Amino acid sequence: MVRTAAGDGEGRLGRPAARAEDDETSGVGAGASGPGRRRAVALTVAAALLVAVMLGGVMIGAVGIPPKGVLLELLDRLPLVSVDSGLSPVERGLLFQLRLPRVALAAIVGGLLALAGASYQGVFRNPLADPYLLGAAAGAGFGATLVIVFTQAEGFVPLAAFVGAIGGVLLAYALGNTAGRGGGTATLVLAGVAVMSFLSALQAFVQQIKVEQLQRIYAWILGGIGGDWSQVWLVAPYAVVSVAVLLAHGRLLDVLSVGDDEAGSLGVNAGRVRLVVLCAASLATASAVAVSGLIGFVGIVVPHIVRRLAGGSYRVVLPLSLLAGASFLVLGDLVARTVLAPAELPIGVVTAFIGAPFFVGVLRATRAVGP
Q1: Is residue 261 packed enough to be buried (19+ CB in 10 Å), middle (13-18) or exposed (0-12)?
Q2: 20-25+38-366 has which fold?
Q3: Rounded-to-integer distance, Cα 68 and Cα 140, Å
Q4: N or C terminus: which one in the chain shows less Cβ crowding within 10 Å?
């Protein structure tokens, strides 16, 4: 069971968020060595790493394309730049119609999942919370399974997964409120567990109706990044809204980390902040799941790494998680499509290979510093 005590979160696995907030405030005007400059440097390094990883993603693949030609072709698409890349029409089509949208989609999905995971951890004040905590994964799986089993409309799978994910979160939130407000976040977590169990049972029941569709269902559940610009444009509006809302609440999450009473004394409505952050994080999770299936561990692994390296202030953790999550999934997708080329591994398998040992290490470290 996920524990929601404030002392089980950032205070053990990183610098306390409240202390980090003080440090950020004291760093204003502190000069070149202040925390504000360190934050800017960290964001710059993370952005540069993302650009490098994305370039690697479009240069490397099962079909070889000259890296110099890729760079020249990308430069040729810039305004006021005209160069001859030497790429053939087939290579150009492979670059712009398959690799670029796939890399872009992997970056969006990875960034959304990591940002949502960090936001959930801030709301529940627990470093083991992840984007699927409130039933988004179970709802998405159930919605996608219904479409796969009962229709042949593959194009409706993302929509069904999105609606299912949102529905699962809303059901958990409604159940948590019905159970009473006295339980706080602990009641909401228990409601999420109940919803996940119920929807997973429904999904298993539906799967048994047409067992011949199991392969398609499991292929979606294991996750995958497509190579279609339409999926990028489908998820982009939801990504922009959710990212903007979550990044704007970094300072408020720092305030919440010191406790609801203290936050109230500072004029912060803790309940309203939690609701807004949960809605935005759930929207980010649902939109990511709709176009990629269920990709695990990104929302836990990336925020942990960021918190270890950059401290516990959510003003820093949230934007760094966004950038680092994008890099992480672009690399994971690159491994998935090249390690067994021309065949592909489900990207969920790759992230599980990386995330499961890391998660075990986190649990061991948490136990080592526990009472």
Answers
A1: exposed
A2: ABC transporter involved in vitamin B12 uptake, BtuC (1.10.3470)
A3: 41
A4: C
Q: How far apart are CA 230 and CA 236, in angstroms?
A: 10
From the DSSP assignment, how many helices (H) and strands (E) are in the chain?
Answer: 17, 0
Q: How far apart are CA 18 and CA 251, in angstroms?
A: 10
Report the percentage of the chain scoring pLDDT > 90: 42
Separation of alpha carbons 211 and 99, rounded Å? 33
Which H helix or E strand runs over 163?
A: helix 157-178
Closest C-alpha to 145, from 94, 201, 104, 185: 201
Residue of 129, 168, 128 whose CA lies nearest to 283 = 168
C-alpha 336/C-alpha 345 separation (Å) is 5
Please state the rounded mean pLDDT for residues 236-254.
94
Structural contact between residues 184 and 171, judged by C-beta atoms closer than 8 angstroms: no
Query: Which residues neighbour 163 within 8 Å (Cβ) at sequence distance 6 or greater?
Result: 143
Residue 255 has, within 13 A of its CA and on its CB side, a CA count of 18
- Tell me, what DSSP letter sits at residue 99? I
- What's the mean pLDDT in 318-331? 96
Mean pLDDT of 109-137: 91
Q: What is the mean pLDDT of residues 331-338?
A: 92
pLDDT digits (tens, 9 = 90+) for 6-61: 334 343 333 344 444 444 443 334 344 567 788 889 899 999 999 999 999 999 88
Q: What is the pLDDT of residue 183?
A: 55
Give 158-186 pLDDT, tens digit per residue. Answer: 899 999 999 999 999 888 888 655 556 78
**How far is the C-alpha of 341 from the C-alpha of 192, rounded, in Å?**
39
The whole-model pTM stands at 0.85
Under 8 Å CB-to-CB from 213, ≥6 apart: which residues? Answer: 148, 149, 207
Q: How buried is residue 357: exposed, middle or buried, by Cβ count under 10 Å (0-12/13-18/19+)?
A: exposed
